[in-house]
């Protein structure tokens, strides 16, 4: 189905949203987010908006409610403009591909464990709805860690969906258990909070750091990665899935982004990870048929060696998002 049809546009260039998104209760929660949250937590709604508007490829029954009307309309306008100007890539495509890459690698990781109970730890979970949308998490305990106020308002929004007569999807948690962990990753006690919530270091685990590392300072990001690396030593099978911005991407962000790595495949082994694989948006495992114009920006970047910072064609910085998978040392020895 064409994206334009799926986006249910009205005659104006407004996106037609379901009643629930525009209900007083949902609007009131988003107003609180608008007025009380900083840009760090607000970023969680942007990724939800992309998942909602790329709904023909990402099945997320909560994304529209979690994103809220304003962000949905804003992204919809951008996507519409991109399509009308025949842009080589449409806004939100990178986030859609990123979501699908994490989904695919998560499923592959769980299958590689060969059965049994699995833990999925989402650090900086934001408005992630994997607990509700992925059937292969049936035997998985999910830990969603984020700031306390984000966890609270996300739960309030989900309660609105459940209570609503608009709950067409009959929303249920598809994982075995869903546990919220209110914590700040900058505080060194976050792992203790996770453990206090029921995380067991010996159980097979997938760690997901999606859209979070670059919001942290260098020291905080390294503390998080090193803490995970130490936790992996106690786990029979574990996989880390994370995205990294390179220096050029972070430099363009006016202080919003901080941590970067141009070579996560060198950084991670230094702190104890093995089998590090790096993909870029547009690679065969990170494409999903969504980058149809052969001259799209991601394709161009992929053709330029990673050591090159400036695109000689137009002098622009080579901003890159690396999608990275790594395992703990024991399974590295097995393979
Ligand atoms: C861009 S969002 C990504 C959310 C989610 N992983 C996704 O892909 O939809 C970044 C998330 O990281 C969270 N975050 C940022 N810094 C954090 C910290 N120090 N501790 C806990 N969560 C943090 C924010 O609150 C936000 O929910």
From TrEMBL:
GO terms for biological process: methylation. PANTHER family: LEUCINE CARBOXYL METHYLTRANSFERASE, S-ADENOSYL-L-METHIONINE-DEPENDENT METHYLTRANSFERASE YKTD-RELATED. It comes from the Eukaryota. Belongs to the UPF0677 family. GO terms for molecular function: methyltransferase activity. NCBIfam families: mthyl_TIGR00027. Keywords: Methyltransferase, Transferase. This is S-adenosyl-L-methionine-dependent methyltransferase.
């Amino acid at each position: 189905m064409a994206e334009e049809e799926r986006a249910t546009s009205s005659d104006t260039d407004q996106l037609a949203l379901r009643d629930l998104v525009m209900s007083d209760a949902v609007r009131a929660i988003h107003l609180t987010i608008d007025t009380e949250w900083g840009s760090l937590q607000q970023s969680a709604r942007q990724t939800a908006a992309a998942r909602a508007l790329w709904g023909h490829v990402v099945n997320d029954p909560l994304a529209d409610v979690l994103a809220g009307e304003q962000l949905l309309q804003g992204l919809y306008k951008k996507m519409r403009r991109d399509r009308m100007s025949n842009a080589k890539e449409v806004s939100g495509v990178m986030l859609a591909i990123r979501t699908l890459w994490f989904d695919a690698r998560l499923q592959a990781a769980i299958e590689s464990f060969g059965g049994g109970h699995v833990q999925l730890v989402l650090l900086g979970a934001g408005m992630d709805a994997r607990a509700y949308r992925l059937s292969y998490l049936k035997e998985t305990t999910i830990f969603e860690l984020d700031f306390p106020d984000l966890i609270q308002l996300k739960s309030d929004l989900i309660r609105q969906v459940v209570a609503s007569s608009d709950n067409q999807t009959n929303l249920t948690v598809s994982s075995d258990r869903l546990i919220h962990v209110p914590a700040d990753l900058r505080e060194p006690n976050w792992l203790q909070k996770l453990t206090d919530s029921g995380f067991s270091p010996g159980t097979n685990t997938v760690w997901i750091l999606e859209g979070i590392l670059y919001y942290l300072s260098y020291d905080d990001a390294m503390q998080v990665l090193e803490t995970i690396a130490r936790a992996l030593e106690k786990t029979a099978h574990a996989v880390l899935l994370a995205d990294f911005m390179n220096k050029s991407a972070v430099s363009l962000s006016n202080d919003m982004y901080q941590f970067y790595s141009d070579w996560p495949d060198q950084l991670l082994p230094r702190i104890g990870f093995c089998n590090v694989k790096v993909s870029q948006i547009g690679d065969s495992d990170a494409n999903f048929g969504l980058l149809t114009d052969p001259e799209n920006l991601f394709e161009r970047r992929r053709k330029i060696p990673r050591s090159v910072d400036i695109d000689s064609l137009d002098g622009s910085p080579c901003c890159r998002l690396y999608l990275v998978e790594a395992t703990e040392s024991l399974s590295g020895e097995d393979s």
